[in-house]
Amino acid sequence: MQLIHDETLLEFYIEKYGIRQHFPSEVMNHFCLYSASIGDAICAQGEHVTQLYLLVKGKATVSYVAENGKKLIVSFKQAFELFGDIEYIKQIDALHTVEAASVVHLIGIPIDSLHTYAASYPLFLQLLLCEVTEKFQLKSRAFSFSLTHGALTRLASYLMLVMTADDGRQLTGPLPTSRTSDIADHIGTTSRHVNRLLSTLAKEGIIKRRKGAISIKDWEKLEQLAHQSIYS
């Protein structure tokens, strides 16, 4: 990640998401703005957590590597989101690996400053409670969705998310097909099965596969197939 020396941009994000109300001034004095590119690690599973991150632009994947080495993408996050909140509360190492899925901007807050100045700050504790509760609700909804919907529906839901811009615009593509392994990890199937599903969507005119990339041709049909987007 790269440090961004732009106080105006930092202030823009603070105002955009109403961040100021949740932190005492002593903590805000330690705010730093970072940029990460696609694939950059924001934090790694098992590492000591030194900062709480506020995702203020872009999207990121949250993944977990099991003891057998299999990678599972747990969720797909977009601004505004906290990373490191559970680790801060429980004072543990990182539970997951978080990687940038687009160009992202994050506000980094040293954990030490939170312990010193915000441990008893009511509005900060309220923010933590809201974020942790929301994560629990999303996880429960995603688990239920995975149990009751097939891989094709989960794939459509995933495509809806990754092909939607930060401002809500529906993108047509292209999405590199080299990411089929990531898609497979995310929806809980194999790369071979993902390729079969993509071929099915292409035959139905929902997507177009050309020169190693995927483009969306029919958003309406994709939304009907997905029912809802759960990967957030």
Number of helical segments?
Answer: 9
Taking strands numbered 1, 2, ... along the chain, how are they ordered across the largest sheet? 1-2-9-4-7
Specify the biggest β-sheet.
5 strands, antiparallel
Helix share, percent: 40-55%
The CATH homologous superfamily of the largest domain is termed Jelly Rolls
Order of helices and strands: EHHEEEEEEHEEHHHEHHEEH
Uncertain residue ranges: none
How many domains would you count in the coordinates?
A: 2
Domain HTH crp-type: 149-220
Protein name: Crp/Fnr family transcriptional regulator
Keywords: Activator, DNA-binding, Transcription, Transcription regulation
Organism: Terribacillus saccharophilus
